[in-house]
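If you are new to this repository, start here. Below is one unmodified record pulled from the training split, so you can see the exact layout before writing a loader.
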Amino acid sequence: MIFQKNENLKGCKYLSILSNKKIAYLSLGCKVNSYETEAMKELLTSLGAITVDFREQADIYVVNTCTVTNVADRKSRQVLHRAKKTNPNALVVAVGCYVQEFYENHIEDAGIDLLIGNQRKHQIAFILENYFSVLAKGEKPDKVYVSEDKTLNSYEPLQISNTEDHTRAYMKIQDGCNQFCSYCIIPFARGRIQSREMESIKKEAVSLAEKGFQEIVLTGIHISSFGLDDCSIEEQKSLQRIDQRMPLIELIQMLSEISGIKRIRLGSLEPRIITEAFCQELAKFPKVCPHFHLSLQSGCDKTLKAMNRRYTTEQYYAGVCLLRTYFDCPGITTDLIVGFPGETKEDFVESMEFAKKVAFSKIHVFPYSRRKGTVADKMPNQVEDSEKKKREHTMLVQESLLARNYELSIVGKMYPVLLEEEILLDGKQYMIGHTPQYVMIAVETALQSGEVLEVTITEEKLQNYVLAKC
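And here is the target side for that same chain:
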């Protein structure tokens, strides 16, 4: 059935039905999915459910799926079927994007017992209670719980008070996207932009700070659109309000005033939000980490236009220069797609040369993956997989050189590092952690996870870690 009601969960029978049920969780894809999985786990645990490892025998398997590419779809399907194979008698629940956009394709899938779309995840307890209640009567339960509203334009009330990470906490502030890049299915799977209420964010941030989390990472599908829900379509497209307000800056100011939070890290930003006014305001908050993930996707203007990205390489580079003007040695990271439909070898070289010009501190490289339902899927001149693999390898070699150049550029500088965990490297014990710029370092120290240590960056490197000294 297509589920529409926003049920009040208080007083439902699930309090007894879910008690002592063993539930295994797995999150695929983005950090937003990870956050939502934590929220569902916290809700069901509060009702008496017991969390077990996904590889163990469980009564219920909950998979928060991803559908960003055909590969992600395949992985979602494989994981769901693996869960059913682990325990054929278990209830296998598919949640999220893989369900939302193509649920009709999965109704007959015997490896999936429940399909719960986006904006229904917060009702998972009610849905599970309903499933088991109907089953107990000897009747056939409904399988599909998906909203018929394709815009999905109201923020889903999910929240956490704790997280498995002991040092930093991801906090979802926004959902949905209005940009409609030609390769992306997410605006259809996640809906239009929806911003979380400031008071709700503040309450969660205070709770996390009280539990000792010192770094908050702001995440969402398109956090540059935070607070633009009430704007015109033109304002939403340009990411600039007519009244000149900057809601993301207002949110950062509020979070900066919360005692206990020492770092605020921004998730992926749309390049067009990086204006002089934005940088001037952002630089006022010393808690903001000088690490900016500006999603580029291509360093070739022709390809950017085909992708329906709303900026040029010139505009992108101007934003990077602004960040380097207002912040000392900021880490500039990005995503790059290689082998996009119509990308020639010359276009690829142009993209790589632009990456060298920007001098990124890290690049996530992805070979283009076709996605049914997108404009790019139907574009001519699709690049052969073998050629995409070659370009991916070439770009990764360049990425490695750029990352090392950035690491060497901060040698001798002192940074506060939030220590995360102890590991063994070359027979010695080190604590590892990230600089504010998101460089992973290793240091010999007696301090523990969660403590902040001032370190000096050295030019030595051990495995994937830059070595630092106290």
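Two things worth knowing about this chain: DSSP finds 14 helices and 19 strands in the chain. The chain has three domains: 14-145, 168-409, 414-469.
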